[in-house]
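Students often ask why inverse folding is considered easier than folding. One informal answer: many sequences map to the same fold, so there is more than one right answer. In these notes we will look at a single instance of the problem. The structure comes first.
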């Protein structure tokens, strides 16, 4: 008789052992998947934070004045938090070298992007910092005369003033009026009124030639928003000028428009402009079409009309109508208006995303 060992109960421990092995394997796989998922989430958050930082840097560079910083040149330190979709960017502009002679002041822009969307106690907000060196380019305008017309001027009567003498008293005089030889400047009645150095300037023989002498990027302004306006008409209401330090850019996109009230800054009219009554503008006036001046109005700064010639359009002669009016060069008003064009300029090759600390 053969004896056989009893094997009762063997299957159950083996099954438990196999189940244990499978459970450990499953837990390991799930843990690895969770780790990889967290790594992907962290990487995505880091990329979002980087994008927020870069967006903040670009926004401050191009929209500094609209963010409330209007000092020209910038202060030694300027800082702001810019709210963005999914988070924010903390931007600091710090001057690291002052302006000296012809050497521009040097600034460092630092932008720290923080992604707050989806942040939890176990997954805090992601951050990333980028930097860029920049210099500050001050706005300016090349002024030929008190009133420059690419298509000529007609003046009625001998009263009034078109003068290139600086009303501010700090800059050399410019011409009283700058026009093409044809059609030139016409005086109907009375003695010629322009004065300056020279009283009348003829930079070119015709309107097409004038277009190359007037250093204004009219195509960029009209068609590519090269100068970002603060006020757009028709859409926005006429601004209040109660703050004497407010020198906005007002853009008018209508074929024919009449100045409604006094103002200051840079007035950009893509069509024709009429200035009536006793109104006054201080700063820069840029007109695409004809400028008609009626009444005893005053412009202290610099005026340019007929700029649509630069777009290949035919523009009639501008008309200085009846009345005792003043169109006088004022370098201080021009500088105050042009300061709105000042901007930070990023220096190529100085961008970094590994700046130590914050």
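Output (designed amino acids):
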């Amino acid at each position: 008789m053969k004896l056989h060992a009893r094997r009762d109960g063997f299957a159950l421990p083996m099954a438990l052992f196999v189940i244990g092995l499978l459970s450990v394997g499953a837990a390991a796989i799930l843990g690895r998947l969770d780790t990889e998922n967290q790594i992907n989430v962290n990487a995505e958050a880091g990329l979002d934070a980087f994008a927020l930082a870069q967006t903040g840097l670009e926004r401050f560079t191009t929209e500094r004045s609209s963010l409330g910083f209007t000092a020209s040149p910038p202060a030694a330190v300027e800082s702001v938090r810019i709210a963005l979709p999914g988070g924010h960017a903390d931007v600091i502009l710090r001057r690291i070298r002052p302006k000296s002679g012809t050497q521009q002041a040097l600034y460092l822009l630092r932008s720290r992007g923080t992604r707050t969307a989806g942040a939890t106690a176990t997954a805090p907000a992601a951050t990333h910092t980028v930097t860029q060196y920049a210099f500050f380019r001050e706005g300016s305008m090349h002024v030929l005369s008190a009133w420059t017309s690419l298509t000529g001027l007609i003046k009625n009567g001998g009263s009034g003033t078109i003068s290139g003498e600086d009303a501010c008293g700090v800059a050399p005089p410019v011409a009283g009026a700058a026009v093409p030889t044809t059609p030139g400047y016409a005086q109907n009645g009375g003695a010629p009124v322009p004065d300056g150095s020279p009283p009348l300037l003829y930079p070119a023989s015709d309107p097409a030639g004038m277009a190359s002498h007037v250093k204004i990027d009219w195509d960029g302004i009209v068609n590519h928003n090269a100068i970002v306006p603060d006020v757009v008409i028709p859409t926005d209401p006429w601004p209040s000028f109660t703050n004497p330090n407010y020198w906005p850019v007002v853009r008018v996109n209508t074929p024919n428009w009449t100045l409604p009230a006094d103002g200051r800054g840079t007035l950009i009219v893509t069509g024709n402009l009429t200035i009536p009554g006793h109104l006054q503008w201080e700063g820069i006036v840029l007109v695409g079409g004809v400028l008609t001046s009626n009444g005893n109005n005053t412009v202290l700064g610099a005026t340019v009309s007929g700029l649509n010639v630069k777009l290949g359009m035919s523009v009639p002669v501008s008309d200085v109508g009846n009345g005792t009016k003043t169109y006088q060069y004022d370098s201080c008003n021009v500088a105050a208006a042009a300061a709105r064009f000042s901007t930070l300029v990023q220096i190529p090759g100085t961008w970094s995303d590994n700046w130590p600390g914050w």
